[in-house]
Amino acid sequence: MKKEPPSSNLQMIPIDKIEVLNSRDRNGKVFAEIVGNIKDIGLKKPITVTPRTDADGNEKFMLICGEGRLNAFKSLGETTIPAMVVDVSDEDAFIMSLAENIARRQGRTLELLAGIEKLRDQGYDKKAIALKTGLGEDYVYGILQLLKNGEERLLIAVEKGRIPLNAALTIAGAGSNDKDIQAALQEAYESGQLRGNHLIQARKVIEKRRSLGRTIARGTPRKVPDVTSSSLVRTYQKEVERQKLMVKKAEFAQQRLLFVVEAMRHLLADENFTNLLRAEGLETLPKHIAERVWPGGSTT
C-alpha cells in the first residue's frame, strides 16, 4: 500500500524558533540570487517544517526543506516566514530533507552522494532510495557500490556526466593495479561504454586516482612518501631538466628580442619609414624596446 503524504497547513512561523535539520553549504552567487528574488517579488514557495517541543516545553520547529529561503529571510531582517507545517516523525523528517536535496540535484556533488549514503545507512535499500529520490534503481545501486569502495573521484565524474556509471564500475572493479585498469579501459572501449570525450575524461580521472588517491581530500593532508636515495636522484634529475628547459626558453626569447631590435634599427634609419610612422601617429616605441634601439633611451 502506498503511504499517504502527511497533512500540512500554511502558517507564519517565527524564524528564531526554527532549527535546521540537514544543513548544507551553498554557492554565494546562488544565495545572492535567492535573496534578490525574495526582495523583489517575495517568497514564491513556503518552507517546510515539522513541530517539536524543546526541553523547557516551548514550541519549536525543525526545518525539512527551504534552508536557502530561510537564510535569505534572515539576511533581509525578517522575523517570520511562511511555512508548510507537517506532522512527521524525526526519521521521516530527516528522510524528507535528504530526499528533497537529492531530488533537486542542485547541491554540490559530494553532498548529493553523501545524501544517498545516509539513506542507505538509515536502512533503505536501492529500491526505496530510488522511489524517494526519483533516481533509477540501477543508478542508485551503482552509486552505492562506488560509495562502498570509497571511489569519490569516480563518483564525481559520473555525477557530472564525464564518464558513464557502468564504465566507472568497471574501472573500480579493477582496483589499483595499472595492468588491470588498462584492461578495464580496453573492455569498456570495446563494449562501447567509453568512446570519444568519455574515454579522454576517464583517462584523466584514472590518472588523478592513481596519483592523488580515490577520495577527495578535505582538510586532511596526504601521506608524504618515504624519501629514498633513488627518489632524491629522480627529483634532482627532474629539476635539472626543468631548469635546462627554462634556460632554452630564455635564450630563445632573447634571440627574438635581439632580432626585433636590430630590425627596428634598420627600419628607423629609413627616413621614409619614420615619416610614415609619424603620419600614422606610431612614432613612439615601448620603453623596453626603445632603450635597446636607441642607446640614449629615447622613445621618440
UniProtKB/TrEMBL annotation:
SUPFAM superfamilies: KorB DNA-binding domain-like, ParB/Sulfiredoxin
Short name of any one Pfam family annotated for the protein: RepB
Signal peptide: none
Domain ParB-like N-terminal: residue ranges: 11-102
Highest taxon in the source lineage: Bacteria
Similarity comment: Belongs to the ParB family.
Stated name of the protein: Plasmid partitioning protein RepB C-terminal domain-containing protein
Species assigned in the record: Hydrogenophaga defluvii
